[in-house]
Amino acid sequence: MNKIKLIILREYLTRVKKKSFIVMTILGPILFAAMMVVPAWLASMEDTDVKNIAVIDSSGVFLNKIPDTDYIKFEYLQNTSVKKVKKNFADSDYYAVLQILPSITYEPTAVHLYSDKQPSFEVKSHIARAMENELKNQKLKANGINEDILESIKSDVKVRTIQWTKDGEEKESFTEVNMILGYASGFLIYFFIFLFGAQVMRGVIEEKTNRIVEIIISSAKPFQLMMGKIVGIAMVGLTQFLLWVVLTTGIVAGMKTAFFPELGTKNAQEVVVEDLFEQQNLTQINQIQPEEMDKFSKVLNAVKSIDFGLMLSAFIFFFLGGYLLYGSLFAAIGAAVDNETDTQQFMLPITIPLILGIFVMMNAIQTPDSPVAFWFSIIPFTSPIVMMVRLSFGVPGWQVTLSMGLLVLTFLGSVWLAGKIYRTGILMYGKKVNYKELWKWIRYKS
Fold it and tell me: What is d(CA 259, CA 165) in angstroms, rounded to the nearest whole number?
């Protein structure tokens, strides 16, 4: 046991001191933070120039019917032509000229937008939506349906999901949050298993080709060496993951303070109320404020509905269980070959279950209680990915216990199996290994 601890310590310290570990530990949080902050920064840098658009409506249908926005204004011109406006376009402050032909009621393409630059998608889509709505209203009115009836038939349905326990306690749940949380957890486990499993394989190959293993094996058994390497790299992975979380949080908080100081000065409720005061009078505020506050309370309730303790503990268990299972198999492959190019023939049986787990995870997001999702969350080779998705929606305790138990048993079995390959292959050089040869190694008696 002491030898395993020494090997674990050696693997851990050797890898955390590498330049690649330090670089990725620093670079990773910067990239993650950029993914969260840059979109908000780009949104704040969007074009806020007012675009004045001249409208020449030959149909007479859309006069003052296309609504203005904060950055798009429409000016309706009469007794003029597109040719005249285009002639003086350079001296005007128009962004574009919108021509609506009389045939618009039966010809969808009877709308032309002229400009000396490529009009933005926002402008085109706003004009198209406004005109489609107006044409629809005109046709409905032509059939005797007035505007009051049109407004009265508009309905907004929001389905609230309520879960109740065996004790009769009711709790509101949020399907969208569960979907995002389950997908993120499952994908992260898939990513880390591949990343750190490949590190185990490369580490074994490197020590084997450098003949360092011949020195180490003289003082430790092959099984101890393999277990120490797998656990040591697992600790490296957890260390890097925790550092990523801490550093990413710190970087995001710092960037918000530096570039978006207004986000940290007021709470969300104050921002909503102040925005409403700027845009609406007091009577309108009394009507709109409850709706805005309801949205804010829904966000808070969605966050509160997440059992972070359960999800975090389950993530750590299934990550470690999945990694130790596949890490032992990666170590066996590394011991069986002399270089990384020879690993391809043995990688397929390992990668297929992981990739299959990703596909089943997509299905489990939609139907977490389906037979396919159930069985693949129990089978140890896919359970670390699929069970994390199902856990976010709620899983009976016996299913979680069964999945965890089978994962542990399969891990122990894979370590025993990989150990038999490892003890022979780690000292085997210059021989092309196939599945028949691996089977012989497994059958060798100590």
Answer: 45
